[in-house]
Amino acid sequence: MEHVVHSLVENDITDIVMVVGYKKERIMTHFEDGSRFGARIEYAFQERQLGTAHALLAASDSIDGEFLVLAGDNIIDGKAVSDLMDGEGHAMLVTKSDIPSKYGVVMASRGRVKSIVEKPEADMGNVINTGMYRFKPEILESMRGVTRAGETGITHVLQRMLPDLDLRAIQTSGRWMDAVYPWDLIGLNAMALGSQGQKTGGTIESGVTLKGSVEVGEGTRIRSGTYIQGPVYVGEGCDIGPDVTIFPTTRIGNGSQIDPFTFISQSVVMDNVRIASHVHVSHSVLDDGVRLGPGCSASSGEAVTQVDREMFRLDHIGSLIGENTTVGSGSVLSPGCIVGAGCRIGPQTIVRNNLENGSVVY
C-alpha cells in the first residue's frame, strides 16, 4: 500500500481515501493522516467485504470530482498512474499478461472496452484488467443501481454497464504486478526492493560486510561476521548474526531474530520471526511469528505443488509457511511445500506435502 501511495504522490495526487475493513486498525495506525507520506489520507469503512464495487461505494461520500480507483494489494509505479491520468472520461488501465486466465481479459475496439471476461476458460487474448480505473463521479449512481441488483465486484458491474458506458482501455508501460499465487510474493518482494543505496539506522558491528543496496531499520543490530548482499531490507528491532549470510532479494521484517551460521536468499521473512542457527532458507516466505529450529532447511528447487485443486510445476521455489508455525530442529521442508498457519512440525521431520492450518506432524 505504501508503494501505491508513493506512486500517487509522485503524480501530485495527494487527496487519498482508503477503504478499510479487514485489519483496518493496523492500516490506519500505519498511515495515520498521511502527512508523513506527503498526502492527506481519510478512511471509509466497508464493514463487510462484499466486493470491490461495494468497497468503492463506501467511499462515495468523499468523492466530488473525477477520481482514480487503485487496488491496495498491487505493486505499481508512477508511470502506471500517469498513464491512467492521461485523457478524460471513464478509463480502465490494461496490460499484457502471460497468465490471462487468472484475470479479467479485456476486449476493446478502437480503444473502447467491449467486454470484460473474468478468468476465461477459453483463449481470448492476453490483455487484462489491472483493476485501476479513472472515473467521473456520475458513475457512482449507476454502480449503486447495479449493486442493488446483486452484483458487487467492479468488473461485473462494469460488464453490465458497458452497452451504455464509454469506457476507454489505456495500455500502460508502467510497472504493475499482482500476487495471484503464494509464490508470487517472492517476485513482488524483488520488484518492491529495487535499488535504493545503503541506509543503516541500527548498530552495525565491526566485521560486517554490506554490499549493494542494503537498508537497516532503527534499533536493529547486525553482528560481526555477517555478510549481506543487496538489495536487502532489514526492519526495525532485529538481531542478526553473528556470521549470518543474507543474499538478494531478501526482506526481513521488524522484530525478527536470525542466529549464527544461517543462510537466507531471495526470501520474505515477516515480523517477529525467529530463525535458529545453521538454517538454510531460499526462495521462501515465512509469515509473522514463524519459528525455525536449529539446522532446519527450506531450500529451493523444482517442485510440483497444488493450489485450489490446480497443479503447478515450478522451476525454482522454496517453502511458504503460514503465521505462528513452529518447525523443529533438523527438519526439512521440501521445495514447493505450502504450510498453513499455526502448524507444529516436530524435530527431524521431512515435509513433502502441503499442510492445512493447525496441522501437527511428528
Short characterization:
The protein is of the alpha/beta class and 362 residues long.
Question: What brief labels describe this structure?
Answer:
single chain; alpha/beta; nine-stranded parallel β-sheet; 37 strands; 35% strand
What can you tell me about this protein's structure?
With 362 residues, this protein is α/β, with parallel strands linked by helices. The protein has two domains: 2-177, Spore Coat Polysaccharide Biosynthesis Protein SpsA, Chain A (Alpha-Beta Complex), CATH 3.90.550; 193-361, 3 Solenoid (UDP N-Acetylglucosamine Acyltransferase, domain 1), CATH 2.160.10.10. 17% of the residues lie in helices and 35% in strands. It has a nine-stranded parallel beta sheet, with no helix packed on it. Strands 11-14-17-20-23-26-31-34 form an eight-stranded parallel beta sheet. A hairpin with a 2-residue loop joins β29 and β30. α1 (2-10) packs across α4 (78-85) and α5 crosses α6 (154-161). It starts with a helix and ends with a strand.
